[in-house]
Amino acid sequence: MKLIGIYGASGFGREVMPLARAQLATAGAGSFELVFVDDGENPLISNGHRVLSYSQFLAEPAVDKQLSFAIGASQVREKLVLRAERDCVDCIDIFAFNAVVLDDVTIGPGAVICPFVTLTSNIRIGKHFHANIYSYVAHDCVVGDYVTFAPGVKCNGNVLIEDHAYIGTGAVLKQGKPGAPLVIGRGAIVGMGAVVTRDVPPGVTVVGNPARPFVK
């Protein structure tokens, strides 16, 4: 029997669990059990599924084990992924049945694509990408590894988003130009509702319309 774990028993993980359940049932995955994996203090059962620590997950007798990493903090997500890889645990891609993926789109392993997400054409996306509900990525965009889209992100064409960037709920990324994309730098944070019309340097947080660096 396959053992599929959703890493993260609170928040986003509880949204990913029913997507995984529907995907596996539709795919005819055979005999499987879905569990939450979380190293914090949790009840033994959440939303009808067992909650295991990572060590308990590894100790389960199932030979075929996979994990989806429903962890919002991208640096933590990467650490957990690397640990699982060292333990020879594969990742699983989770796609909502009503997500739309059009022409020439490549996506790295471990993606979580939520309901009503649209990925249009000629797009390159790295590993362990999270696209929350109602987000879209338009033509000729390049998205790095461990990038997170909160709900309702509007990523227009010719945008380059580097690794570990976080794009907040309802943010709008202006369309770039062929050969001169709008760039969101590595580890940058785009605040909720921000309208980004210029490049965002690595590690910088921007907010507002038009988006400007956040000053405490």
Description:
This is Acetyltransferase. Residues 4-81 form the PglD N-terminal domain. It holds the Pfam family PglD_N. By secondary structure, the protein is an alpha/beta fold. It folds into two domains: 2-92, 3-Layer(aba) Sandwich (Rossmann fold), CATH 3.40.50; 95-208, Hexapeptide repeat proteins (UDP N-Acetylglucosamine Acyltransferase, domain 1), CATH 2.160.10. The chain contains three helices and 25 strands. It has an eight-stranded mixed sheet with strand order 7-10-13-16-19-22-24-25, covered by helices on one side. A hairpin with a 4-residue loop joins strand 24 (205-207) and strand 25.
Short description:
The protein is an alpha/beta fold and 216 residues long. Helices cover 16% and strands 31% of the residues.
SSE blueprint:
Blueprint: E1 2-7, H1 12-27, E2 32-37, E3 45-46, E4 49-52, H2 54-59, E5 65-69, H3 74-86, E6 90-91, E7 94-95, E8 100-101, E9 105-107, E10 112-113, E11 118-119, E12 123-125, E13 130-131, E14 136-137, E15 142-143, E16 148-149, E17 154-155, E18 159-161, E19 166-167, E20 172-173, E21 182-184, E22 189-190, E23 195-196, E24 205-207, E25 212-213
Parallel strand pairs: 1-2, 1-5, 2-4, 5-6, 7-10, 8-11, 9-12, 10-13, 11-14, 12-15, 13-16, 14-17, 15-18, 16-19, 17-20, 18-21, 19-22, 20-23, 22-24
Antiparallel strand pairs: 3-4, 24-25
